[in-house]
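Give me C-alpha cells for this 149-residue protein.
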Amino acid sequence: MVREFDTTRFGRLSLPEEAVIHFPVALYGLEDRHDYCLLEHDDLSGFYWLQSLEDPTVALIVADPFRYMPEYEVEIPDSHTELLKAKAPSDLTIYTTISMAPDHSQVSTNLLGPLAINHEERVGTQIIQHGSNYTCRHILATRQPTEKV
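Here you go.
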C-alpha cells in the first residue's frame, strides 16, 4: 500500500506504508503528530528530514549523534524498550534533532531529548535523558563572521 501526503518543503510525496514510522507518544511540542518518514538530506551529510505525514509544515532535521560525538551515551528505560519492541540495543537507531541559529552562525543538536527508532518495527519515541549533563542545544559548529574587504 502507498501513502500519499503533502509537504511544504518537498511537495507531494508517495511512500510505501513500510516507510512510515509511528510515534505512539508524540514528540515534545508536536502533539497530535504521530506518523513520520525519514528522508535523506543528501548522500554525504548524514542528515535526514523527519517529515510529518500529518502536518505538511513539520519537518525536523535529524542526524546520528555518534557521528559527531562518539562518546555520547543514551539511557533507554525498560518502558521505552518495550514501546519500541526492541529485543536488543542493536534494534534501535538513535537520532538527535539539529537546529541552526537564526543568523546561521551556530549549528546545535539536542542531546537531552534523542529519538530512538526501531526501523524493523517502524516505531519511534523521544527519550528525555533525565539527570544527565547533556543540553538541548549542544553546539556542533560555529561560523565566524567574515569581514568585508
